[in-house]
Amino acid sequence: MTTARAHRRKATAAAIAAVLAIAGAAGCSSKAKDKDDGKAGAGGVKTGVGVTDKTIKLGALTDMTGVYATLGKSVTQAQQLYVKQTNAAGGICGRKLELTVRDHGYDPQKAVAGYTELEPEVLGFAQFIGSPFVASVKQRIDADKPLVLPQAWSASLLGSPYVRVLGSTYDIETINAIDFLMKEKGVKKGDKIGHVYFEGDYGENALSGSKYMAEQNDLTVVEQKIKPTDNDMTAQVAALKKAGVKAIVISAGPRQAASLVGVAAAGGMKVPIIGNNSAYAPQLLATQAAPALEAMYFVSTPSLPIGDDAEGPSKLAGDYAAAYPKDALDNGVVAGWTAATTMGEALKRACESKDLTREGVDKALLTIKDWDAGFGVHNFTDPNAPSSLESVIIKPDKAAKGGSSVVREAEVSEAAQGFKRS
Amino acid sequence: MSDVLTKPAPEVPPVAPKRKLPGPRLYVWIAGCVLLIVLPFYLERFWLQAGLFAMAAAIGAIGLNLLTGATGQLSMGHAFFLAVGAYGYCAFAGNGDDGLTGLGLPTGIAMILGVGLAGIAGGVFSPIAGRLRGAYLGIATLALIFIGQHVLFNAHDLTGGFNGRDVPSLNLFGLHFDDSELLVAGVPFGASEKLWYLGLVLLAAGGLFARGVLRGRPGRAMNAIRDHQIAAGVMGVPVARYRASVFVLSSMYAGLAGVLLAMVFQRTVPEYFGMVLSLEYLAMIVIGGLGSVSGAVVGAVFVSLLPQILTRYSDSLPLVSDAGTGGVSPGEAAKYLYGAALVAVVLFLPGGLVRLAARRSKATPGEPSGSEGNDR
Amino acid sequence: MTTFIELLLNGVSMGSVYALIALGFVVIFKATEVVNFAHASLLLAGGYVTAVLHEDIGFWPALIVGIAGAALVGAAIEFLVMRRYRGKDHSVLAIATIGVDILLVTDLTRRIGTDVLAVGDPWGDSLLEIGPVTIAHTRIAAFLAAGLLITAFLLAFRYTSWGVAMRAAAENAETAALMGIRLGRVSLGAWAVAGGLAAVAALFLTVFPTPGLERATSLAALKAFPAAILGGLDSTTGALVGGLIVGVTESLATGYQSDLTFLGRGLGELAPYLVMVAILLVRPAGLFGTKELARV
């Protein structure tokens, strides 16, 4: 190495270092401890992190480029719609809502980085996709106390007063689904049922529901574990056929459900198939599995479908279609909207009790009981339970808006009421 | 990290005459070190964490560069060894409170054992690695990723399954590397601030050691194997032994990176240790520069900071739109940029980014870097 | 027994699709000694063109355009990237194909977005029943198409001047060049052929029983890696056999997973790699790969 080269390199390094130092210093003028908890702001309301006299900042950690892109897109757009409408109506507590969205693409590193970035700036998170990532920052959520509404329905998320699951969890949903199969689809005690499920939180939580039902009702569960990359369910159907199952539960993605139903139908395996809410998307009605889906597929979901005639769904469907004419109306829209309105309701109640700090919002949420967001009734008084034990059973329906219509109205099965998590 | 930038590139033969002016060089060295040391007093946690991800990536990339860059052994299984290190540390240090296997060893020892375990894993695989060459080796190591993922998801008692397991925080000589606040000069030090220094120490130590290896006799032997395995053998280099040792060493670097990452994450999740991570490490060493420590570090910083910066400043960047508005999202923009950077570096900048500065100042060709070596 | 036969037939048919992908992979390796990690994007590109066009111009024309499109993408990669590389290290070039793959897959998935695109194939979900065994028409079509293409390819490889040039280039590039073979054309042709084969594979990966083309379809290319390697990277026969082994292994491991629970569930994806490692332990150059002779 020559001196000239060395100098140049040193100079470059020094320049980079200087820029970094300046950026660092400018980015954070003082890190010295200064918690602004409990300042009284406009209107005599106590405020904390993420709240000024004019705005309330909320965060959304979503996945718009990874495996849950379909869900993430609908949820995020629904929440942005809520923020827009709320602000147009004057905001909450005299303050405008601001939603900062970070797309982590289902990458743990980006998800954790997104939380670290937004946490010091926002009051709470209206969305957090990916239960493994929620789990990975759970310790910090318990210390920082922002309200987090994850877009996942896994029972492993229960138990924290700051992470609140909206609607029934996958295990409850599956119990209600099997209850439906037994009451209305002719599955009897002693029958075998198949359960095709994803490796991971979602599938395994759902499986615990079907195992519980099996114990209660003397059923046998034939398990088939799959991965999100499996798209062809031929081998699974062959195995389930061999086992002689009378019905199939699927806790996977929409593609796997379409393949499963398509293969079963084509092979003359006429058994009812029911999926969890994440196992259906209206986009499937454009594929050739559509007739089979309409004929023998059902979905258990925590909320009314977007195509329902009730007031909440029809208004949301209209507004959403007007705001995003090119995008599909699916149940992710409902999920996003429900989370946003829940957050909004908690903020309103926190405002009434003049405490818009994180603690204030957490406390306000605990007072919400028998509250109807337009898609189902929620109850947030117990952090150890999901906000609802209800499931609506829907079926794919080309004619309906949003591609699904209700088969059985919201109902809590007896089994779901008696279900105790170990 | 900029202090590492200032190190001379290790591909310079140690015998080359060096006339240096100690003044400016020393000055920059000190400035760089001071800067890195004071950063935690100013940067917010987001940037510290980003820096820590980059440091861990740099350690892992140095290991991969020893193997792939300097010795010419293509490995796509690096993520597996990171996982071994991360989960190994958890298992050695965990006390079993969460119902998962834990030996409850002191965390400092667990850290060393985690690194050692990764090395052993590398050693176990090296008989297979020793038989294979080039593309065969690359794709055979890909099998490690799939095996790793399968075990991480299924060996529930050890790994916690899909939701991963908590990482016990490091405790060295009474200093807790966790979120318990430590006030230093009025600035509260949480986990990121404390780990920052640990990361710096580990990176510096790892970098210096690797530089020593590369510049010494082993380094020349490794390059000889890369450039011409048979000729190297003929000249008396114990090829098989070297290849196996480099595989083990590289796995240990990956294990160390895994341990550090686990501490930064505070929880390990299996999703992270997939194929994409392995590909990212390959991208790092190619973008930065094959076969050198500084190359690995520069590449690691580039690849791991790029998406973070783009996401953070997505609002103010042209062409990149905020998530949810329908344009090119920051995540996609980062992928475009890093894919393009990878191709561009291979085509137009053989030797990687570290050669950029070197090239401009002097037109003499350097030692053959990996890109000019012959695989045969 | 019925289940076994069904699983076996399915495995063979999926295996023949994997063989198509692996064949493209091997062709590129033979012509240029580069491991092409961008194969996933070729697959996705071909499938995407077919899926987008089929409603307007009908399925068969769309398929032909799709094949041509993927061949063009392959050729473009060769022309714009591979040819510009001045170094000699083929593993560096292999890493560059990772960059190409990231670029193309990012772009294509952005276009596909959250949709599931149907390809509009004529087979639908009809099944063939032979006694108690049922198999989808698409699977039979896949097997026949793959068989036909592979045979045609092997014949071309043996008897056409392109095939001879290609084998000569694979044997010894320098000598071939001295004999007047244009290496550029050989490698351009190899990339185009690989693209076309990948497009056909993409078709059969997106028809019934899978719902359609979507962002994850490209991951199927990962199955072709073990297929190409265990058969031997420089052997076309190896690609065929490797593809079949991977397909059958995967199908059986999935179908009998309830009997193999001690290995953990969800074995289907892992099994091909385990078989690959086992074979490589015995034969480091794959089943049919030529053992590299050292030239000093």
Fold and architecture overview:
The complex is a heterotrimer of chains A (422), B (376) and C (296). By secondary structure, chain A is of the alpha/beta class. Chain A is built from 14 helices and 16 strands. The N and C termini of chain A lie far apart (66 Å). Chain B has helices at residues 2-5, 22-42, 45-70, 78-93, 107-131, 134-154, 156-159, 191-215, 217-227, 229-234, 239-265, 275-288, 293-312, 330-348, 354-361; strands at 165-166, 171-172, 175-176, 182-184, 187-189, 267-268. In chain B, strands 1-6 form a two-stranded antiparallel ribbon. Chain B has a two-stranded antiparallel sheet with strand order 2-3. A two-stranded antiparallel sheet of chain B has the order 4-5. In chain B, a hairpin with a 2-residue loop joins β4 and β5 (187-189). The model of chain B is unreliable at 1-18 and 362-376 (pLDDT under 50). Chain B has 15 helices and six strands. Chain B has a single domain (2-372), classed as ABC transporter involved in vitamin B12 uptake, BtuC, CATH 1.10.3470. Chain B is globular and about 60 Å long. Chain C has 296 residues and is an all-alpha fold. Chain C has one domain (2-216). Chain C has helices at 2-32, 39-57, 59-80, 90-112, 137-159, 161-171, 173-178, 183-206, 221-231, 236-255, 271-282; strands spanning 127-130, 133-136. The longest helix of chain C is centred in the first third of the chain and has 31 residues, at 2-32. Chain C is globular and about 60 Å long. The mean pLDDT of chain C is 87. At the A-B interface, α1, α2, β4, α3 and α4 of A face α1, α2, α3, α13 and α14 of B.
Write the topology of this structure.
The complex is a heterotrimer of chains A (422), B (376) and C (296).
Chain A: H1 3-27, E1 39-40, E2 46-47, E3 55-62, H2 69-88, E4 96-103, H3 108-118, E5 124-128, H4 131-136, H5 138-144, E6 147-150, H6 170-184, E7 192-198, H7 201-217, E8 220-226, H8 234-243, E9 247-251, H9 254-266, E10 273-275, H10 290-296, E11 297-301, H11 311-323, H12 331-352, E12 355-356, H13 358-366, E13 371-372, E14 377-378, E15 391-396, E16 404-411, H14 414-418
Parallel strand pairs in A: 2-12, 3-4, 3-5, 5-6, 7-8, 7-9, 9-10, 10-11
Antiparallel strand pairs in A: 1-2, 11-15, 13-14, 15-16
Chain B: H1 2-5, H2 22-42, H3 45-70, H4 78-93, H5 107-131, H6 134-154, H7 156-159, E1 165-166, E2 171-172, E3 175-176, E4 182-184, E5 187-189, H8 191-215, H9 217-227, H10 229-234, H11 239-265, E6 267-268, H12 275-288, H13 293-312, H14 330-348, H15 354-361
Antiparallel strand pairs in B: 1-6, 2-3, 4-5
Chain C: H1 2-32, H2 39-57, H3 59-80, H4 90-112, E1 127-130, E2 133-136, H5 137-159, H6 161-171, H7 173-178, H8 183-206, H9 221-231, H10 236-255, H11 271-282
Antiparallel strand pairs in C: 1-2
Helix pairs in contact in C: 1-5, 1-8, 1-9, 1-10, 2-3, 2-4, 2-8, 3-8, 5-6, 5-8, 6-8, 9-10, 9-11, 10-11
